[in-house]
Fold this protein.
Amino acid sequence: MKTDTEFDTETTQALLAVCFFSALADGNIDDSEREAVRKLAEELGNEGTDSLLREILMGKRSLETVVAAIQDPKARLLAYEMARTICEADGANTAEEEQFLQELRAKLSLPATDASSLTSDAVPIAESVGSQSGDLRNEEMIMRAAILNGALEILPSTLASMAILPLQMKLVYGLAKSHRVELGAANVKDFLATLGVGLTSQVVEGFARNLLGGIGKALGGRLVGGLASQAAGSAMSFSSTYAIGHVADRYYAGGQKLAMSEIHALMTDLTQKAKEIYSTKLPEIQESAKN
């Protein structure tokens, strides 16, 4: 018998379709976005994400039909939260993305107050930490951001995890500025893409660990396993933030002259180093989560 914490297959498919519609809202979907949704589909026990995307691209599945399949109020709120976070992954929405979100909210019959409150609590977190980090040395700035992002992953609030991406972007911006390099949001996004860090992929995987796992232990009859682990999510966010920070520091300190092969090698080595450091920083991460 299905419990009130489970979503059926049709609802889960519809949620994945919302992910695709969100990624396509700016007129494009890249391989990292496609792979992120495929991984999420595997965790939810669903197959055929490529065929789902083809149906959407060919106009065989509309946003109206997708939304009609989402009846559970929690699933409707989740659908909008996923869509908004995917659209905001690069730090700023295009006019097309804002129009899409307004249309989605209306089709989901969500009150404007409910929808707009979903991400607002995450904004002060990113802003306050960014301002506090301004006068710290770069090494301390990087470690502080890594610890905080590791802590955000283990908080019970799903909203907290939405601050992880803005914090990583803010870290890159702050490190570049320390070397007298001024960046815009697009520059930061391009830098992260160079590192092989998929913004949308991180968002969707974060939802698989936190949002979907938080709303229900079982989705489509399957337990959400390894990807849903808070510990795994915390370690990943700590490690990726640590590596991003140190690569950015070296890159901008060296006049942005690192070759692509050097950048990728650094990212791999530093991520591995961060995984080894994580256990020694876990008490600080847990304490930060409490505070």
The radius of gyration is 19 Å. The chain is about 70% helix and 0% strand.
